[in-house]
Design goal:
single chain; mainly beta; 5-stranded antiparallel beta sheet
């Protein structure tokens, strides 16, 4: 997974949270590594061997008092707060 960051944002850390689309599972988390103008992380290949699609979101922190999720719920609180990967 990779995430591009606009040059005007100063990110102190980025985390990738992921799980199967299965409400009985907890999210797995991995800290993302800085890569050029963004961040990157990998979901282990063995984890992707599942009948369930994967859902994921990013946690971004500027400092100890400023953090947010991407994609988040949006201003109207109606958006899907995660991305979904389905098998092709």
């Amino acid at each position: 997974m990779s995430l591009s960051i606009t040059p005007d944002r100063k990110i102190a850390s980025a985390w990738l949270h992921y799980r199967h689309v299965n409400q009985a599972e907890r999210y797995e988390s991995v800290q993302m590594a800085a890569e050029g103008s963004g961040y990157g992380a990998e979901i282990p290949a063995a984890y992707t061997v599942s009948d369930y699609p994967l859902q994921y979101y990013f946690e971004l922190r500027e400092n100890a008092r400023s953090a947010w999720l991407h994609p988040g719920l949006g201003a109207d609180l109606l958006q899907q707060p995660y991305f979904v990967l389905r098998r092709a």
